[in-house]
Amino acid sequence: MDSRKKDKLLCSQLQVVDFLQNFLAQEDVVQGLDPLASEDTSRQKALAAKEQWKELKASYQEHVEAITGALTQALPMMVEAQKKRAQLLGALEELQAKKRVATERLRTAKKQWQLQQEKHLQHLAEASAEVRQRQRGAQQELVQLSQELGSLRQQAGQKRDTLHRHQTFLQLLYTLQGQLPFPEAETELPQMLDLSKDKPQKQNPGDTIGEDRSMPSKADGPQPAGDPSSPGLPEGQQHGKGT
């Protein structure tokens, strides 16, 4: 603003100088034509130039005063504007510093989050692999147990068939002898056979094996001692035959 006002003042002064130069040049031309007329004309022009000079001077003074007043009012505003500019620059630098810190924190947080997600995914993958491995092991164990259970059921069926044959043989022997030394066995054994036929699935394989191992002892146990040629006869009858 200060340089602009100075330029305007300088322009006004140059206009005054140009006017005076033109005026003097015209005076020289007029004086060369008619000295008397030129003197009156010169006086009139000098008076006009003087008046114009006064007007220009007054206008110049007004402009100077206006510029001075404007500068007087503008200087505090300019100082205040400079202070505000400095404050704004400081605030801008502070904001930029905070922005850099926030950006760095965001980058660090994002990196940590990515690492946590990778660890979590890795942990899930490991857990899933472990679960699949356990599932395969459980399936293999289940298949093995199913095979063992089938084998045990087959063995139990064979034992039951053997027991049934032994019981049939014993009943035949007892029928031939005409007596039942163990009448309670005749009622218990068919009941056990019926229970084993009705509920083969609920029996424990260990109990079935134990039962199968213990049952033949009853079938083999009641054979009376005596002559090997007649295993089904009691001892008294064998002696009777001998006598």
Describe this structure in words.
With 243 residues, the chain is mostly helical. It has a domain at 2-108. Helices cover 88% and strands 0% of the residues. The protein contains five helices and no strands. It is rod-shaped and about 190 Å long. It starts with a helix and ends with a helix. The model is unreliable at 183-189 and 195-243 (pLDDT under 50).
Features:
243 residues; rod-shaped; ZW10 interactor; coiled coil; disordered C terminus; Zwint-1; mainly alpha
Short description:
With 243 residues, the chain is mainly alpha-helical.
Task: Detail the topology: elements first, then pairings.
Elements: H1 2-33, H2 35-177, H3 183-198, H4 205-220, H5 235-242
Helix pairs in contact: 1-2, 2-3, 2-4
SS field, number of helical segments:
5
User: How many beta strands in the DSSP annotation?
Assistant: 0
Q: What can be said about the biggest beta sheet?
A: none
What is the element string, with H for helices and E for strands? HHHHH
Estimated share of beta-strand residues: under 5%
Shape category: rod-shaped
In percent, how helical is the residue content?
over 70%
Give unreliable regions as ranges. 183-189, 195-243
The overall pLDDT average reads: 74
